[in-house]
Amino acid sequence: MQRSPDRGNRIIAQGEGSSFAGIYLGFDRGWTVNHCVKKLIAWYDHDHRLLPWRQTRDIYHTWVCEVMSQQTTLAVVVPKFSEFVKQIPTVDELATCNEEKLRQLWSGLGYYARARNLKKGAQFIVEQLEGCFPQSYREWLEIPGCGPYTAAVIASICFNEKVACVDGNVVRVVSRLLALSQDVWSSSGQSTIQASVTRMIPEERPGDFNQAMMELGATVCRKTKPYCHMCPLQEECLAFANNCVDICPPKKPRRDAVKVELFALLVWRKATDTLAVVDRTKGFLSNTIGFPLISEVEASEAKRVLKLLPHLQLFELPSKFSHAITHHRISGKILVAQEVETLSITAGIVPWQILVPQPFHWVERSDIASKLSTSLDNKVFKLFQKYYDG
After folding, report:
1. Is 66 a catalytic residue?
2. What digits encode the pLDDT tens for the residues 167-194?
3. Which residues lie below 8 Å from residue 115, measured CB to CB, with a gap of 6+?
4. Residues 124 and 268 occupy one common structural domain
5. Catalytic residue among 16, 66, 83, 93
6. Do 309 and 170 share a structural domain?
7. Are residues 284 and 346 in the same domain?
């Protein structure tokens, strides 16, 4: 039987200038928005994942886990989070944490700018707010590096503020509840999704509601192969009723990836088993520590220079690496510049500054994994290890 919307339970009012106007939540069976929300929170109470930051309503923990979770899977975040709050348990200690320690604790999470912004936020709280956390959504927006989504998560979970959190999971849940198969990713579509969730969010337990929506999207209402038979909102879902779950929401338009080809240069002093690492100051991996990354032209120049330096030999490893970061798709080769014999102090030329014009320092190979701050560098190092130790 064709289900007709219950006009007494609108989420989005007509006349708001949205292409979603006239979409309703609730059917001829008499479901209401409040009933839907109660079912969702009851499901969350019973079935939510036991994540470490959910054990207490700790403001610092909520903030750290939210920043860590941006564009990173929970399987990676959970162990990193536990170690992070163990090593840096308070906002005061985060504000004064040295750069090397912060890099080590963030290693493997990617997007290191998030860690820098987290520290900047901590410094602002300690220096400008005398160590007192903001108490509302608006106040959290004043914290450096804290955007609307992060502010909403903290305000709703820690302060029970009625403010909606909308991430990709929530967009998917709402799109399927309302059978939205178009105009979801535009600015107007996103505004309408936000308004829809704002109308749904209850006065009581707004933080649990937000977490329930995100949890549902992450574990049940998945992007592909959703577990509709396990969904607490199956009876309310217009996409399920109309057999259009697979097209709600429509695929998000993607920017064309920028393809980058480069060489990773490993300058190796075999006698001391040390490698040169640089402090990157520009490019898409700026403010990270790793191996020099050079273009094909620069690699050709390195080979030309090495012909004049008998103390060095250059090898190109047979294995290649690939990496994706933001909108870059990187493919690369590994060049190893190996010192054949130690140069004397009186040698007429010191080759390292020629090969590595960026500021660099030597790190023992046994310690280097803890110094590298990107997964790209770790991939390169593992290939180097495999070749020379395998």
Report:
1. yes
2. 999 999 999 999 998 889 988 888 889 9
3. 102, 103, 105, 106, 109
4. no
5. 66
6. no
7. yes
